[in-house]
Backbone:
């Protein structure tokens, strides 16, 4: 983890400037810019997921639980008490972190598939609760965010561009948090756990506590992103925000396809998976039922077969090959 | 050697996994700075013994280290007391550099201001590691990985070093180097409890030994006594 070289700093600055200017190239009320917004948001979610899954190798399939908690908390506070979604986001983060703590206490001793299954069940339980507790959540009918005049304070905009910048800021913030954690003592503890749990224990790392801290951070951040999603979509129901396929698996898949455990992986993954999914829907959904999902699924399988460690590893392999050819 | 002054005193120790008992009524004691080995066949429970001392295995009975009871203590609280464990199979962190591996060894030392000195001491002991500081530990040879694991353990400046089958899977020439490594460490005053299937190696470096068979200690004595014992000679030395 060397310090950033001037070349890399310049590259990051150029990319950032391009990312900020990008919405001007699209129709501000169009469809494409909404896809970009979702790609940024899902990139941020995959990055939050990456904190616990990428660094500690505890692959969660239940992150929808935290996402949904964030979406419902801020929206319900807004509907019933008129509380700004920003404060709602903080409340959601606290609840999301608390939920992560609760689910982590019994499950963090589990490894591999067992952990993934336990978290999957947790996400599903939250979905069932949200569906059946109609008095609070509106049940399967869903819930709408009350309209307000465009303002940053109420986190509502008529145009799509401010949402784009908001999502971009969220992705940058979560990525910065991920990088900071990876370089910190916590990050070293998590990497030690990922590489060898027993060796980590015998050098004095409290492995369970370390994993729980990471899960709480990851859950809290994911809940914040749930609030952003609610404010962006204006309407959601339990099956969307607590969904296995719509959230939990998709978030995990984005990070895995991009490159799990790396800072750039979730971003690459999101900008591949989200547009690809939309593209498949647009082209194939009119032709036969389920065809678009099939095409989307097959493409993902191909990517994983070619390089199970994702785009980042693919890029590294290509770079190595170029260097070798340079030398010869 | 009386238990009152012993560095490590194990009494009436039973231990095992998920209700399957592996160790039965173990009694073992070590003085400060002593080099003791535990020999025995595969599955005799040698690794379980070390894992029990480190708190990785549930146990009944007593393990007293410098007067502190270890049974019931969580495993991450044990290194801080001065016990360093080198697990079987060279458990290095493969994707971290040699330097990161070694430095992480002092992880549980609170407010260590002498981290640089500790690191320097370890690197002096293992000059080979200094040459490879930035290399990923997983890319080292087996013998070098064992050095990383031992060096990482020594970062704790432990009173007691637990070594689990360090020669396992290493070439004979590397095993010879290990022999020297052990003596170097022992000379610093660190007590070593070595578990080995390579009985010849174990008895040539340790001053005393215990023979473990099906989870029970069946024999104890100085290395010379054990080397002369007929049962040990036929069962473990192949003579």
Residues:
């Amino acid at each position: 983890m060397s310090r950033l070289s001037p070349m890399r700093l310049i590259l990051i600055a150029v990319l950032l400037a391009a990312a900020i200017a990008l919405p001007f190239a699209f129709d501000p009320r169009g469809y494409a810019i909404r896809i970009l917004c979702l790609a940024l948001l899902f990139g941020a979610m995959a990055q939050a997921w990456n904190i616990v899954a990428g660094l500690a190798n505890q692959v969660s399939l239940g992150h929808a639980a935290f996402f949904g908690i964030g979406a419902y908390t801020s929206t319900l506070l807004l509907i019933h008490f008129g509380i700004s979604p920003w404060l709602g986001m903080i409340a959601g983060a606290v609840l999301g972190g608390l939920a992560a703590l609760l689910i982590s206490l019994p499950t963090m001793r589990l490894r591999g598939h067992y952990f993934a299954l336990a978290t999957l069940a947790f996400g599903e339980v939250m979905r069932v609760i949200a569906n059946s507790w109609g008095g609070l959540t509106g049940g399967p009918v869903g819930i709408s965010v009350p309209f307000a005049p465009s303002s940053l304070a109420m986190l509502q905009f008529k145009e799509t561009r401010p949402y784009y910048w908001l999502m971009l800021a969220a992705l940058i913030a979560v990525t910065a948090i991920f990088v900071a954690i990876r370089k910190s003592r916590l990050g070293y503890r998590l990497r030690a756990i990922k590489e060898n749990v027993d060796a980590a224990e015998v050098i004095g790392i409290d492995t369970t506590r370390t994993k729980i801290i990471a899960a709480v951070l990851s859950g809290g951040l994911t809940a914040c992103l749930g609030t952003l999603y609610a404010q962006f979509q204006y309407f959601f129901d339990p099956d969307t925000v607590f969904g296995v396929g719509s959230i939990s698996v998709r978030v995990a898949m984005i990070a895995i396809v991009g490159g799990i455990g790396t800072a750039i992986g979730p971003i690459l993954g999101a900008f591949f998976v989200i547009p690809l999914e939309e593209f498949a829907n647009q082209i194939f959904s009119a032709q036969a039922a389920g065809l678009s999902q099939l095409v989307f699924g097959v493409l993902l399988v191909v990517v994983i077969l070619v390089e199970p460690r994702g785009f980042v590893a693919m890029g590294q392999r290509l770079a190595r090959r170029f260097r070798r050819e340079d030398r010869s | 050697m009386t238990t009152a002054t012993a560095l490590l005193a194990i009494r009436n120790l039973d231990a095992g996994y998920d209700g399957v008992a592996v160790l039965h009524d173990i009694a073992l004691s070590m003085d400060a700075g002593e080099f003791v080995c535990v020999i025995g066949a595969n599955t005799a429970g040698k690794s379980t013994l070390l894992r029990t001392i480190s708190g990785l295995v549930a146990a009944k009975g007593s393990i007293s280290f410098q007067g502190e009871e270890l049974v019931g203590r969580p495993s991450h609280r044990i290194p801080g007391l001065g016990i360093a464990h080198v697990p079987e199979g060279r458990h290095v962190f493969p994707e971290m550099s040699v330097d990161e591996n070694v430095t992480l060894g002092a992880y549980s030392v609170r407010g260590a201001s002498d981290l640089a000195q500790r690191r320097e001491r370890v690197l002096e002991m293992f000059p080979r590691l200094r040459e490879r500081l930035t290399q990923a530990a997983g890319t080292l040879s087996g013998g070098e990985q064992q050095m990383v694991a031992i060096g990482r353990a020594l970062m704790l400046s432990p009173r007691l070093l637990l070594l689990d089958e360090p020669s396992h899977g290493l070439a004979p020439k590397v095993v010879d180097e290990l022999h020297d490594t052990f003596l170097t460490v022992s000379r610093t005053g660190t007590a070593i409890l070595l578990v080995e299937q390579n009985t010849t190696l174990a008895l040539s470096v340790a001053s005393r030994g215990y023979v473990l068979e099906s989870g029970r200690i069946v024999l104890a004595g100085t290395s010379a006594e054990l080397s002369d014992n007929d049962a040990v000679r036929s069962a473990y030395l192949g003579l």
About this structure: Chain B touches chain A through 28 residues (CB under 8 Å).
